[in-house]
Amino acid sequence: MLVTTLTALFLDRLWGEPRRFHPLVWLGRWADRVEAVLYAEQAGKHQAIARGAFAWLGVTLPPVALAFMLDNRLSGLWHTLFAALMVYLAIGWRSLKEHAERVMAPLVQQDIAEARRQLSMMVSRDVDTLEEPQIALATCESVLENGSDAIFAALFWFAVAGVPGVVLYRTANTLDAMWGYRNARYRYFGRVAARLDDLLNWLPARLTALSYALAGWHRKASRSRLRQALRCWREQGGGWKSPNAGPVMAAGAGALGVRLGGPSRYHGTLQPRPVLGAGATPDANAIRRACRLLDRALLIWVVWLALITLLLS
């Protein structure tokens, strides 16, 4: 398991996210077809939820079944390479940092228009009127939250359930991104996808929050930063609209010593959001520090995995 994980991380650092023929693109097309068959405009609440549940199963079961079959048929080096490839395709370590750096670079040069354009590729909020502090804040939030979804949760489910586990998680997470909205179309149809994604992310998110808190305590930060991260997680995490993003971002913001959250505009509507973290308003340098925090947290996970491997061997 440790060798497979390290190989997957190496492949991610070497190649980054595949730009062509990514399996998630095919998964998205398959999900669109299943949705077209099962979605009904005039369905009532319970019927829409049931249709959404069948749609979730229809999209999820084929790739998980295929992963289970291959996972059991392959052995030795071929199995290790197959598993590493699946984990590599499920994570987005390099791509997440590259997106953040594309925002940070123009922000350092005071090119606000370009920073906004790059930020629009990371977040769903309105970016047209954001200035440097709000751009840096949104980028730090994205790095911390997506670090949990795009890296740590995938590694967790691979450690727990092997290749089928990581395929199940990535499929469920993709369906939440497609259907997990509280709008007229998906409020009921996407409810199962949203709830199952919350369930699959519950424990990984809290392990991520703990690793962010631990990663904030290093030679350039005092022990009080660890206590601050844990306090922010405990006192602020539960007030966020997402049960998993709240603890992750609160702990990460506390570890960085910055304030995140606060009101933000989505699709023309200003939405109130609680403040997360403590300390200064983020700037371009906070984005760099958020990426470094992510790297240190990932190192902690690798050490944990190595220790578990030694204990089980």
TrEMBL record:
Known pathway: Cofactor biosynthesis; adenosylcobalamin biosynthesis
Keyword entries, A-Z: Cell membrane, Cobalamin biosynthesis, Membrane, Transmembrane, Transmembrane helix
Membrane topology: Multi-pass membrane protein
Superkingdom of the source species: Bacteria
Transmembrane parts of this sequence: 48-70, 77-96, 150-169, 293-312
Function in brief: Converts cobyric acid to cobinamide by the addition of aminopropanol on the F carboxylic group.
Keyword Cell membrane appears in the UniProt entry: yes
Protein name: Cobalamin biosynthesis protein CobD
Membrane among keywords: yes
PANTHER family (alphabetical): COBALAMIN BIOSYNTHESIS PROTEIN CBIB
InterPro entries membership: Cobalamin_biosynth_CobD/CbiB
Subcellular localization(s) per the UniProt record: Cell membrane
Family as reported in the entry's similarity comment: Belongs to the CobD/CbiB family.
Principal place of residence: membrane
Organism per entry: Kushneria aurantia
Pfam families xref list: CobD_Cbib
